[in-house]
Design brief:
With 134 residues, this protein is α+β, with helices and mostly antiparallel strands. Helices cover 22% and strands 50% of the residues.
């Protein structure tokens, strides 16, 4: 084996090693994250519980929307966004408070969608979301 082949093999080995590490980090969830423990709708109210995986609290940004599909057309009933701090407590909101907008009376078959965005331990923006059929 000549010296060029040795350096080439070493370079490929490093590329594979770094590639494997990069892939593993992208597949595994971040160590610092939010977990959706509950999202439900009952009696005209949304109930949610989000918990951080590390520390007692985690700040995040939320977006929420409620839509209704009629004759194959999706109508946005209400939508909004804001900032929150999540600590594993259970919170209950009216539809208008949950979305941050004025909502009409919701009906069975309406769909609620929410996304929570937080910063992980590497400073990257991560998001989790949920869709709830009412």
């Amino acid at each position: 084996m000549n010296i060029t082949s040795s350096f080439g093999a070493a370079g490929i080995g490093l590329a594979v090693a770094f590639g494997a590490d990069f892939t593993a980090n992208k597949v595994n969830p971040p160590a610092r994250a939010l977990i959706i423990e509950e999202l439900s709708y009952s009696g005209g109210n949304f109930t949610q519980r989000l918990s951080p995986t590390t520390g007692p609290t985690m700040p995040g940004r939320w977006t929420a929307e409620v839509v209704r599909v009629l004759d194959g057309i999706t109508y946005q009933l209400c939508a909004g966004s804001g900032d929150g701090v999540y600590n594993g407590t259970t919170d209950t909101y009216t539809a208008s408070d949950w979305t941050g907008a004025d909502c009409p009376a919701l009906q069975p078959g309406d769909r609620a969608e929410a996304v929570w965005t937080f910063t992980d331990e590497n400073g990257l923006q991560q998001s989790i979301g949920a869709i709830l059929n009412l």
